[in-house]
Amino acid sequence: MKPSISTPINPTEAINIPAIPHTTVSPSSPWPSLQLRELWEYRDLLLILVWRDIKVRYKQTTLGAAWAILQPLLTMVVFSLLFGYVAKLPSEGIPYPIFTFTALLPWQLFAYSMTESGNSLVANQQLITKVYFPRLVIPLGAVLSGLLDFAIAFVVLLGMMLFYRIPLTINILFLPAFVFLAVLTALTMGLWLSALNVEYRDVRYTIPFLTQFWMFATPIAYSITLIPQKWLWLYSLNPMVGVVEGFRWALLGTTGFSLSYFLISTTVVVVLFFSGLMYFRKMEDRFADVV
Amino acid sequence: MSDIAIRAEHISKRYRLGERAPYKSLREVVARAVTNPLNRLTGKNKAANKKEFLWALDDVSFEIRQGEAVGIIGRNGAGKSTLLKILSRITKPTKGKAEIYGRVGSLLEVGTGFHPELTGRENIFLNGAILGMKRNEIARKFDEIVAFAEIEKFLDTPVKRYSSGMYVRLAFAVAAHLEPEILLVDEVLAVGDAAFQKKCLGKMGEVAEEGRTVLFVSHNMTAIQRLCHRTIHLGNGLIVLDSISDRVIKEYLNSLPLANEKDELEKIISTLPKDSTFQLEDIHLFQDKKPILGPILNGLPFEVEIQYQVLQRTTGLRVYIDLCDSEDLLLFRTFHDEQADGIPTMNRGRYISHATFPSDILAPTRYIICINAGIYNIRDCIPTPGVRIPISVEWTGNYNRAYMGDTIRGKLAYVIPWTTLEIKNVTT
Asked: I need a surface site. Which of A85, A247, B329, B411 has the fewest CB within 10 A?
């Protein structure tokens, strides 16, 4: 029999004993939990993966980060010649080049991030089959790495605004919200596409088409004023309409889009985002077995 | 709280056959949706379903105490890697559960996540983060890692320019500086040159001595014997034996298939795991220009012919034969290129290597010949101990010719030229 006298524990000693984490490994439950706290614990990994993607992107290219500027710039030149000069599309009284460039920036941020994160799980299958971490880190990191290119190109946009003498207004304070919405839309698509891609490689071939069609369904080369008023509600189901028009409103002061339509865009994203997150969590347990 | 580190209870893992290999395409799913109702009507589906699954692990239970170093052995496909993957949470068990007390570090591969375009310095941070280290933890151990890997001069060179030896050293160095309470290691020591392997083993030994729990999957019996007091032998997803290492290893080696007959040899060769560099195709044993059917006669030379494919141009690829006694003790090893002056490079292609063992070296007893190939400084191409062929030897040679019935002391019966002269003493 042990004596029942309990030895007093020295408080400093008690602090020094490291808490031993306890994990239970068990079969997948039918209802996935989001486990965002665990995601936060792996923020170091998230940051380093973003850093890796950025670091590697322009390695062994001669022009390097200049590509971040050249891509939207060259697209703008082509659009300006084709749609602005030849087709003479209306641009709400704003010089066509900057009208389209303002839309191209968030679009390229979205398109790049969606493509990268859609392919991210398959591209990182070596990691997924060999190490444990919350799988969300992968598509999330891929989306975030697109922000640097955006920031570089944004400086050019500010330069162009100076050149065209477009004054900055108080509206620019809302810009971060629209950037956030673009990133959220890309992440939403990234969650759906990357999880589907693990099981169906058809997704990889679908993404380029999806991007192309989506671009024509977004007012980038043309003005939203060309869309008949009665169809605007349908048109704004495309979340990128809200983002692009938000950019034009915040920077150029256009008024073709109203708040109610913007709310439709936002609601669509939020619904798709949470359903995508649930789907991703549900499929996550199988990634390492299937990829 | 008890002193248990891992408690596995009835862990089972089911894989759909072929699930890991080809992914589904949408077309297939559509096709299946169309054909499935048809199958259900004809009752085909049931039979197909039964075949489609494979239990990689089947009701595996064990307990590992804190500070214990446990080896896991078994043939390919026995479920060793699946077990480590479940314990490290990469994949979920189909049934059963495991309780794990402590931070788990898993080393299922050397250099997971290394990016060829990044420098050694950058990869240390990347790989460290992937293995679960915090950034300041890596920064604190950075110098130690670099020193262990012996790559000081190449820290700022992209790792794609590293030699394979350097690459592996750097990768292991990062992994070796993980400090979890529980370390899961899969076959990491099969890499690097002998000196580095020794260093790795030393480091692993240190880890075990520090009181951390180690689970160590390997084909390297010597390493297991050195590091682990206890070993679990897995076979077909079940625990065959869980006991003291010496006993488990001995029984494991005895249970390995021997290529007694041609059919069996072919089966063993065809089920070898695929290797990116070396593919064994055929093995023939000859004596007196005829295939060996019965025992080998030690009075005649005997020949081993190994046919194989080299799948990519490789420097230092060595085909070798181990001659072991009936208890798997290595007597000697001979390499196909041991006469070369420099380290040769083999081109892609199909080869036949031919070794002739001279007469009068084998004793009239049983041996096991193990055939394998390795890339110098890097790895073995077939999991050790390679393809094992038992031979028995009959006494027809010159060794001890006049005393043929006498027992032979020693593992070999080499005929050594002797001369004996009688000294005619004249001084008396």
From this structure: B329
B106–A131 CB contact, under 8 Å: yes
- On whether the CB atoms of residues A98 and A166 are closer than 8 A, the answer is yes
Q: Which one of B20, B113, B134 has the shortest CB-CB distance to A289?
A: B20
pLDDT at res. B18? 57
Who wins on pLDDT, B357 or B45? B357
Q: Which two tokens stand for residue A144?
A: 């975030």
**How much is the pLDDT for A7?**
42
More confident residue, A234 or B263: A234
Residue-wise pLDDT for A129-178, tens only, equals 988 999 999 999 999 999 999 999 999 999 999 999 999 888 999 999 99
Q: Are strands B95-101 and B4-16 parallel, antiparallel or unpaired?
A: antiparallel
| B99, B7 Cβ separation under 8 angstroms | yes
In this complex, how many residue pairs, one in chain A and one in chain B, have their CB atoms less than 8 Å apart? 117
Confidence of residue B2 (pLDDT cuts 50, 70, 90): low
pLDDT value, residue A243: 94
Mark yes or no for CB contact A25/B118 under 8 Å.
no
- What distance in Å separates the CA atoms of residue B1 and residue A19, rounded to the nearest whole number? 12
Instruction: Give the closest of B15, B101, B130 to A45, CB-based.
Output: B130
Mean of per-residue pLDDT scores for chain A? 87
Cross-chain CB nearest to B115 (options A56, A60, A129) = A56
CB atoms < 10 A from the CB of B363, how many? 20
CB contact under 8 A, B135 and A52: no
Q: Which of A71-75, B39-43, B116-120 has the lowest mean pLDDT?
A: B39-43
Residue to mutate among B17, B81, B117, B134, with most A CBs inside 10 A, is B117
Residue A25 CB contacts under 8 Å (≥ 6 apart), including other chains: B86, B87, B89, B92, B93, B97, B98, B99, B100
Neighbours of B408 (CB within 10 A): 14
The partner residue sitting opposite A25, judged by closest CB among B26, B98, B126, is B98
Note whether B380 and B374 are within 8 A (CB): yes
What is the token pair recorded at A24?
């239970």
Residues 6+ apart with CB under 8 A from A61: A67
Between strands B317-325 and B330-335, the pairing is antiparallel
Per residue in B366-421, pLDDT tens? 898 999 999 887 778 888 788 988 888 888 878 877 777 777 788 888 888 899 98
Identify all chain A residues contacting B97, using CB atoms and an 8 Å cutoff: 24-27
Where does residue B1 rank: exposed (0-12), middle (13-18), buried (19+ CB within 10 A)?
Answer: exposed
Cα separations in angstroms, A87 against A83, B114, B238: 5, 50, 72
Residue A17 one-letter amino acid: I
**CB-count exposure of residue B425 (10 Å: 0-12, 13-18, 19+):** exposed
DSSP characters for A178-232? HHHHHHHHHHHHHHHHHHHHHHBTHHHHHHHHHHHHHHHTSSSSS-GGGS-GGGH
Identify the three-state secondary structure at position A138. helix
pLDDT at A13: 41
Q: Contact at 8 Å (CB) between B79 and B59?
A: no
- Among A111-125, B167-181, B198-212, the range of highest mean pLDDT: A111-125
Tell whether B99 is within 8 A of chain A (Cβ): yes
- ipTM of the complex, rounded to two decimals: 0.81
In this prediction the pTM is: 0.76
pLDDT confidence tier of residue B326, bands split at 50, 70 and 90: confident
What is the DSSP secondary-structure string of B254-269? HHS----SHHHHHHHH
Are A56 and B29 an interchain contact pair (Cβ–Cβ within 8 Å)? no
Amino acid, res. B333: R
